[in-house]
Amino acid sequence: MSNNARAGQLLLDLGMYLGFAVFARATSLWSEFYGYRVWGDFAFVAYVLAAVHALVLLLWSQWLPARLRSRTLPIWLVVVVGFAAPLAKLVVTRLGAPDWTNTPWTWSAQPNVWVIERSAQLLLANGTPYIDVTALGRTPDVNDYTPYGPLMPVFGLPRALFGTSPLTDARIMFAITAVVAVAVSLRVLGRPRVPVRAAQLAVAGPLTLLTATVSGEDLAVIALLGLAAALVLREKPGWAGAVVAMAVSIKLIALPGAVVLTVLVLGRRRYFGAFAGVFALVNVPVLLVDPGAFVEHAIRFPAGAAHVRSPAASPFPGHLLTELGPSGHAAALALLVAGGVANLLWLLLRRPETVADVMKRIVVGMSTAILLMPASRFGYLVYPVVFLGAMLFFAAVERKRVPTFQPVLSG
Questions:
Q1: Under 8 Å between Cβ of 389 and 203
Q2: Do residues 179 and 94 both lie within one domain?
Q3: How far apart are the C-alpha atoms of 203 and 200, rounded to whole Å?
Q4: Structure pTM?
Q5: Are residues 177 and 192 in the same domain?
Q6: End-to-end CA distance of the chain
Q7: Are residues 295 and 392 in the same domain?
């Protein structure tokens, strides 16, 4: 890389870290959630240090020892200071702060975490993580819902089985799952070099670190979809189908990514057989216990059609339309379906031929879904941002060698 090109990269690094620092500082000052503010305090320091490192590299790199000149060094720094440190503080603080309160300024974990841990208890006791909200003897509220797939309770099992401790916090399970999935992906691909820009977007970005610190389930889903993509690239469609089935069975928001990967592997019977088998194994037993509760929690609630409306209320188009009343909700659902159909037609008429192209389609598809869902959250934007980083990573991998994967249906 020429000196001018490296200077340009460092300038962009500096701008990104400063922008991330502004986001973190704004979060620490103005968020209503205690966990968000704790994360913001730590992350602000991390991003400022990363920006200082980029500035020093830009102006005085010749004075630094060789081991300190790497642009990956601040990424590790940000992960330690901006994720591991605040997570450790929050899981310990949570031991003395009760869950299930209406005081977000005291929450050491987001409600997602409580709900998931409770769902594990329900699964062990009843064979299903979903309760019949019509049989409560009172008006149901949002905390009665478990708006996830039947595999999500697995992450809450340590606390259900071994009791309350920092190590049984569901966020630890999500982090472990994400790290293991990424490590296996890199091993499957032959441990390729990860581009710095890809790592900044997928690993060191504020949405990634904030999500991992206060909740975490979305990163586990993303990492599993990334692992499935790596398995597809290495011609292991059966394993890929099984991993995709697990991701979808954790959280339905994985469905757009699953559809794109499925289009890439059309004709791979091992993929479809593994997907169908794992999906049925995970979902059918829970469905049979209480079909109505399954549909109410896992499908109707995320779609905004349950007895209780989701509290997800970020001001995206789908939610704003829903706020107009029944006709607006119908319009939002119609737009969501139309967006899904448009993305599907794009996939079928111009099928992706590389995994990097798959990542690009996932970015577009998930962005469409997030913006048009009746109940959506700002934090869901972590999906397209991380998959954008994954797109850069897989593009670099595929540029260095001819992919082993070749689509069966080649247009």
A1: yes
A2: no
A3: 6
A4: 0.91
A5: yes
A6: 38
A7: yes
